[in-house]
Design brief:
alpha+beta; three-stranded antiparallel beta sheet; 15% helix; 1 helix; two-stranded antiparallel sheet
Length: 144
């Protein structure tokens, strides 16, 4: 240890920090007085200090902007997202169910073999089923 570094005073940290540092970047506690460590703290290659726990955005990150719909429930406050592809799939599944119903009305025996398609209503809240929802168009960033 030289004159430009000191130890964190927290008993479980005891890492070397630059002199004059007020808060330890590893444990977040105050560094007031230099103390001698009981044992050197192990430093693993995968350990990152608390200050840099969030990954910093890189300049060469590949991402694209996507247009989505954001639904928010007025009853329970849940947020959900869907895109135009989900809406078109919902319409196709609804048309398949209508076609099956028309086959049944026509007296076709094969209508019982065709399974019903699941139709999700994006205007309803997925958790509570309320129709008191607000839907707006948003632009989000999607990383590739």
């Amino acid at each position: 240890m030289d004159n430009t570094t000191e130890y964190c005073q927290f008993k479980f940290c005891n890492r070397v920090v630059p002199k004059g540092t007020v808060v330890c970047p590893y444990c977040g506690n105050n560094v007031k007085y230099p103390v001698k460590p009981r044992m050197p703290a192990p430093q693993s290659a995968s350990y990152k200090p608390i200050a840099s726990a969030k990954p910093a955005p890189k300049e060469n990150d590949n991402f694209e902007f996507i247009e989505e719909f954001q639904g928010s429930c007025g009853s329970c406050g849940k947020l959900w997202f869907f895109n135009e592809k989900d809406v078109k799939l919902q319409q196709i599944n609804a048309l398949k169910n209508i076609g099956k119903s028309m086959l049944t009305l026509g007296g076709s025996m094969l209508a019982g073999i065709i399974p019903n398609e699941n139709v999700t209503e994006h205007q309803r809240c997925p958790s509570c089923g309320s129709r008191a929802t607000k839907i707006q168009r948003v632009t989000n960033k999607r990383y590739l």
